[in-house]
Amino acid sequence: MLSLRKLLLYPGIAGQVLFLYEALKARMGFWPLIAMGVPLLLLERTWNKPPDPRGARWDLLGAGWYLALTGYSVYLAVSGYRPENWILFLLLMAPGVLLCMMIIVRTLRASSEGPGSGTDSQVPSDKPMEAP
Asked: Which pairs count as long-range contacts for 31-40, CB under 8 Å and 24+ apart, including other chains?
């Protein structure tokens, strides 16, 4: 089953490959393809698995990597590098950016709350609240 994450991320990675490949091919050979597959491999690792702290680290790394490559693509577009259909490639990357930002915010929120800090973990007390 194709999940929402995959539906948003696959076109974004294709947009990164199509946008950056020509710019990086002369300098790096086939390495851009490998570099652009890293977010997919890191995020794919934790999909369809129960959440755990180690998986959250992989999610953060994959989302950060995706955002860095997309940021580099936007920088190149602003600087004047515009391959044919460049706007389409950037539009393909946009939903993945939103997804990765949601992953980062969700992971950082979960790690900052820690165990026992949510509203559902508070034990009700019979004592009235004291005024400050």
From this structure: 35/69, 36/69, 37/13, 38/62, 38/65, 39/9, 39/13, 39/63, 39/65, 39/66, 39/69, 39/100, 40/9, 40/10, 40/13
